[in-house]
Amino acid sequence: MALFNIQSPFISNPIETREDVKAFLIGLLDPLAPHTSPGGARVHLGYTGTHYDDIAAQLEGFSRPIWGLASLLAGGDEYAGTERWVKGFESGTDPNGDEFWGYMRDKDQRMVECSAIGFALAVAQHKLWDPLPEHAKHNFEKWLASMNDKEMPNTNWLWFRVFANLGLTKVGSPLGSKERMKKDLDHLDTFYIGDGWSRDGPEGVVQLDYYSSSFAIQFAQLAYSKLAQEDEPERCEEFRNRAKKFAFDFVHYFDDEGRGITFGRSLTYRAAMSSFWGALAFANVSLPAPLTWGVIKGLQLRNLRYWAHQPGAYYPDGTFTIGYCYPNHNMTENYNSPGSPYWFCKAFAVLALPETHPFWAAKEEPFPEALRNTTKFLEKPLHIATNLGGHTFLLSSGQQCSYPVKQSAAKYGKLAYSSAFGYSVPVGSLTLEELGGDNTLALSDDAGEVWKCRRETKEARIEWQGEGEGRKGKWLRSMWYPWKDVEIETWLVPPHADTPLWHLRIHRIKTGRKLWSAEGGFAIYGQGPNGRALEPSTGEEFGTFENAKEARAASKAGVSAIAELGQGGSVQRRAKALRTDANTNLMVPRAVLPTLMDEHEPTGEKSVWLITAVFGLPAIGEQEGAKPGWEKEWQKRPNVPEELLKLMA
């Protein structure tokens, strides 16, 4: 029986030229019209709740598309619906009007939306500020400046106030405070930790996720470096230099297909994760080979192309769903309203550039050959990024959210994160199926009633071989203490050239209580060609396979597998191709998870060792399933480093 072919409303757009990208943006802006209030100030896209009020949520729906609209207008284009936003600025900032947004309080969500608004005033004053009558301009600047004496979170939020004041000064408002802007920028500079990387907060914060790059800090630094060049040339040059260093790390988070590695929070912003590449172009920052303009263009456009092809990212009317590749509220944060996904529109910053700019004039180039089949140890984020064998993923230890975030153990605490397979989040707490425990070592002390996964990692570091420029990374090493009498030490070993599709995880467990363990590989699309659940299979065809110590699943998405190596005195675990509960995985609503399970008695002063080999090979392009011959790679097994075998002995 043929499946009904559900397609994205944007699938026919090739997204190769500036006109194509413009059409994609307009295709996102037009569907907002029926959801816009009579005065234009509020865009109501749904009824889900957030920790902030509904007026702020509707302001989100109004403001976030402005990242794209302002860029389009700055590039000299017209948009027929621009009047909706001009009216909205007038009615949303009128304290006596029915659609007033409300003045800002301390740590107010309205502050977040000021970033796009300030950017819009700075780049598209002629279309969005100049048409306003004088009384409306007065209300507007008073509302925007109302954040200057309010408390803000000590995070990337400070950039939102910087852009509010930058926008006000650009339009000549006396309420724009250069003094406030300088204080905020000086403080934001204390987040910088070197090699191009910034933390999302002060010392002690260890989040280096997409907020440290495209979602906020790197994007903001680059945009500021262009817009404030005359006022602060030295600081702007420093921001550009940071971006040049950062780019050679960040490129490893993207694959040939244009996908970014799913890691951290706020992934419902989708293409915003690639907006750093467009921000480089916006700021006219050229990079040495292999990151030529053609490569930068390819990184940005392939990511936009990928999202244009994801039907689950959109409702039938062309508005965004809340989720990643399909509607999924399990993975969202309490600050995700129906308007939140329009942070996506940061990826349209390249529309501010004319056709003659090197970004548009260059021929799009594929992912650089020099960066294929490589592994890079990223010291600042404590990641090992690899695309060896055609699978782009990272090994991770040492990051966690510095404040409560829903599903933070899944978003920051897992052992590996993939661009192709995505991570999974729990939908409940009482079964392994509900847990969505891909790429984690889950532990239970009550026979599987409740499971704990790594959330807070301790003593994480990359261990090196050699010194100086010639040193080579060996692995990531870290500790985790799920209970007071339980300690887990983990070594994450990246793929080797001889076994490029396998990586190793070695765990040493000391426990004062009985434990049940379950370790998952990569969660993979769990349906067969007929759309029904994968069935057992022993060959290369689609299906699942399991025996005493290994399990795998093969589907149109590729192959995922896990094996217990049982070397050096490690235990023998039983394997299972586990069908996880629906809507756990970010990329596919029905997934299979190869898993190893065991029971462990209290160890006393001794240790239990687990040696896990994890296999992953995604499908490429339009191809369904892994490339032919994958089973030969599956039959190989990686070697455990001698140093670790000696430690086990």
TrEMBL record:
TM segment ranges: none
Coiled-coil region: none
Boundaries of every DUF2264 domain copy: 17-366, 374-644
Protein name: Uncharacterized protein
Xref: InterPro entries: DUF2264_C (IPR049237), DUF2264_N (IPR049349), UCP014753 (IPR016624)
Short name of any one Pfam family annotated for the protein: DUF2264_C
